[in-house]
Amino acid sequence: MSIAFIEIPWRERTVRVEHEFLQPATGVAADAPLLVFLHEGLGSRSMWRDFPQRLCDAVGLPGLVYSRPGYGRSTPRAADERWGLDFMHRQADEVLPALLDALDVSRPVWLFGHSDGGSIALLHAAHHPTRVAGAVVLAPHILVEEFGLVSIRQARTAYETTDLRSRLARHHDDVDSAFWGWNDIWLHPDFPGWTIEAELPAIACPLLAVQGVDDPYGTLEQIRGIARARPSRPGAPTELLELPACGHDPQRDQPAALIAAVTAFIGRHR
Fold it and tell me: What are the AB hydrolase-1 domain coordinates in residue numbering (predicted)?
């Protein structure tokens, strides 16, 4: 593994970002786009396990996996730092561009985002269309559903009463930074009004949206709403994949089906 750290300016300070570049087993062309992985709300670079490498091998593209500030081995939140309701927008518009610039990534990228990372991918694609060649989003959030908030409340209880905290601590230097940074915002009394539906029409690249039928954090309305807000257009299709017997983590519940679908989608639209 080639895990490294790089410093970027963010929120009026310098933060350290844990990241790893991946190479497919078959090698890549010099002009191949980079596949950037954006983790879930409690995720990190390590929590992807071997899935990014498996996908890079299948599609024949290099990859970049990183932990957002507040997660993994990246700089945790400061003790007095509270994220706002726009925290996913700030990741999409501030952190990701700063990271790509710091790593000298100038060519367009493919985004592969899961859950909160899927929402961040959608926002980045909408706001920085010239930087994004395509996007794949798993279990993204485009609005807040009471259905999903029930599971987030249950996660809070589990964090306080079960071994969830110790299991997450294997992946985060400051596990409380990671958990409360995510949970406090999602359960903020104003967060039910959060939505990114109006921003989706600006996405100009091919888009594949994937949802597990049994996802406890969101209904199929999340990806069906994407297709309504941003229907296919010439050269920039919107495709949906609804996976049966699949929860919130298609990369763990249905990895073979997901890799096959993503490989075919990227192959058609590279």
Answer: 35-261
Average pLDDT score, the chain: 96
Specify the pLDDT at position 103: 98
pLDDT in tens, 67-92: 999 999 999 998 888 899 999 999 99
**pLDDT > 70 fraction of the chain, expressed in percent and rounded:** 100
With contact defined as beta carbons under 8 Å apart, do 72 and 172 qualify? Answer: yes
Hey, what's the torsion of the CAs at 171, 177, 184, 243, to 10 degrees?
-20
3-269: CATH topology is: Rossmann fold (3.40.50)
pLDDT of residue 1: 52
Exposed e or buried b per residue across 180-206, where buried means at least 16 C-beta atoms within 10 angstroms of its C-beta: bbbbebbeeeeeeebebeebbeebebb
